[in-house]
Amino acid sequence: MLPRLLLGPLAAAPLPLPLPLRRRLAVAGGIRAMSSAAPAPSQRSRRPLRGVVFDMDGTLTVPVIDFPAMYREVLGGDAAYAAARAAGGGSVDILHCIEDWPPEKQRHAYEVIARFEKEGLDRLQIMPGASELCGFLDSKQIRRGLITRNVKDAVDLFHQRFGMTFAPALSREFRPYKPDPAPLLHICSTWNIPPHEVIMIGDSLKDDVVCGKRAGAFTCLLDETERYGPHDSLPEEVKPDFKVSSLTEVFTVLEENFDLAPASAE
């Protein structure tokens, strides 16, 4: 894994944003405190950022799938769900759970998952701040990619419905999927950009943050409801470089901590 640098807030004022974005940021509040292990860098020590990779469900889109209900149906009831949660340290990786099941049982599990996902697509909503953030990245010529454990049809519908295109956009048909770093490394290779000039943004510690850290990229956790607790309380092995409560806070993270170099820069 490439060396990592935990960046602290900079003294320099952020670059001016369009008025609507400034209003959003004023409402959103400050950025979550980062690890204090490293000293705050100077203006000259800002790291270049040439690509941003997003999770989709719960990050670019509002969470609408009832995952506990889906897990109970796939696994066979409350007891099986509780056992899977206990084995996973409080969380369930359903794709990993069914990976070694017999073909017929696995087929039924995927049918259940597909049904819940389709119901979610019918209620698909874009996350507040996502469109503005993507426009900001485009204005800086920063590449945008996407990695999701959802199916390709969901990604295609997302692109079509909201007019936002991410390339590459990797669904769970790409193996291995998150938290393995392979999809993120594939995107970096496609872009010809090293992972340490890319940031992974997602709402899951075990999938998005671990994927980014394993690949050697910067990581940003979107935690709207503080379900993971304060940044300093997170275990070091899964602690993201940044933690925000909304996508509007990402503007400040990027402008205060990175040199936003175009993807074509050498």
TrEMBL record:
Lineage: Eukaryota, Viridiplantae, Streptophyta, Embryophyta, Tracheophyta
Annotated InterPro entries: HAD-like_sf (IPR036412), HAD-SF_hydro_IA (IPR006439), HAD_sf (IPR023214)
Pfam families: Hydrolase
Organism per entry: Urochloa decumbens
Record protein name field: Haloacid dehalogenase-like hydrolase domain-containing protein
UniProt cross-references to PANTHER family, sorted A to Z: HALOACID DEHALOGENASE-LIKE HYDROLASE, SUPERFAMILY HYDROLASE, PUTATIVE (AFU_ORTHOLOGUE AFUA_4G13290)-RELATED
Segments traversing the membrane: none
